[in-house]
Design a protein that fits this description.
Strand order of the largest sheet: 1-2-3-4
Shape: globular
Distance between the termini: 62 Å
Number of strands: 4
Structural class: alpha+beta
Number of helices: 1
Strand content: 35-45%
Low-confidence stretches: 2-13
Radius of gyration: 20 Å
């Protein structure tokens, strides 16, 4: 009996690392570069995530998408910075 060895090619997905991060205290806005395909054509688009970092009762860092009233001015600032970054990047 003839045995054939088949090599499997494993595609490694690129880690989706942040393109840019804006921080004001515990509040951050992260710009992500996303890559996809549209009818076989590669496309790129950017998204922005907002989060608040805090330490839990055990002292471990956590994050949340919920903001407190006092977080809103900082959230507004980092969102504005992310927006400026994206608009200026489009002009390049």
């Amino acid at each position: 009996m003839n045995t054939k060895t088949t090599e499997k090619k494993v595609e490694q997905k690129e880690a989706n690392l942040p393109e840019k991060k804006f921080r004001a205290g515990a509040i951050s806005a992260t710009v992500w570069l996303n890559k996809s395909q549209n009818n076989g054509t590669p496309v790129e688009y950017r998204t922005v995530s907002i989060e608040r970092s805090y330490t839990d009762k055990d002292g471990k860092w956590q994050s949340s998408n919920s903001m407190r009233v006092n977080d809103l001015p900082k959230a507004n600032m980092v969102i504005q910075k992310a927006y400026e970054y994206l608009v200026l990047k489009e002009q390049d």
